[in-house]
Amino acid sequence: MPDLFTPAPISLEEQLPIFQALSSEFRLEILNHIISRNGISLKQLAKELLVPPSTLTPHIQKLTACGLISVEEEAASHGTQKCCYPKMSHILIDFDIISNRLPLYKAEIPVGQYSDFNVAPTCGLATTSSFLGILDEPKLFTHPESYKAGILWFTTGYIEYMLPNFTIGNPDIEKIMLSFEISSEAPGTENDWPSRIVFSLNGIELGSWVSPGDYGDRRGRQNPDWWFDFLNQYGLLKVLSITTTGCYMDDEKISSVTIDDLQIDSQSVMKFRFEVPAGTSLSHGLTLYGQGFGDYNQHIRLVIQYRKKQKEGEFH
Fold this sequence. Notes:
Low-confidence stretches: 1-9, 310-316
Distance between the termini: 37 Å
Order of helices and strands: HHEHHEEHEEEEEEEEEEEEEE
Helix content: 10-25%
Number of strands: 17
Mean pLDDT: 87
Oligomer: single chain
Structural class: alpha+beta
């Protein structure tokens, strides 16, 4: 089953468990409670829905089995309790991909596997076991074990990644999609801390998005035990798409730059950059969360979709 970001062209039949889970109005109500609170205990969920926990059990099992939610046992004031968390931020059904089975290339890039940077404090990197060197020292981004980082942050500047593009043949690229967990960067944390983050590919600006804050009101669900409570805890899962009609952050268009404007093919070197420009009222940094940190336990995910080859004798 897919989790948070799955643009792969799987058949409708393979998605049947999700459709079945969503066919119940009661399960939709359960899912709405879980998503709106970004997680809730089973006891509290039963209380809010005015049903006994035993009534919830088969519905929770169905939502868990298809990957829509996860159930985790957590410490409570008296023993432990089971809590439900959302595993999907959205579901995208692209019938054109499904029907035409367009070829895809998929990859994951660890947040520490950057190829270039220029950052200003506050800044730092950490693996799931420790910080990499001291904090607020930009030169530590050259640390020989930076590729192991599961989280990084800085106030202004940029971090750049070489996107892999290992396909056979030379098909034209139709769409590029990137998924990542991201937030602003405040000294400590600050949920209301808007930061304008600019995205570019090979030096061409794709658009920008304003991160609402640097979240620290609770612990990130994936953070290691040693991670301090006063530090960045979790971000928002975002999907950036570069298409034939423009660039989109989730469903919102952020620019009119198209995939054709970028003149990229399967042989191209692709340098993707996250940047926070200095000197503005929204220069409030960024934090990237990878596996082992934040809420979603994922690397930066890349999907490249290629155009279907035109058959001999076909004309547009």
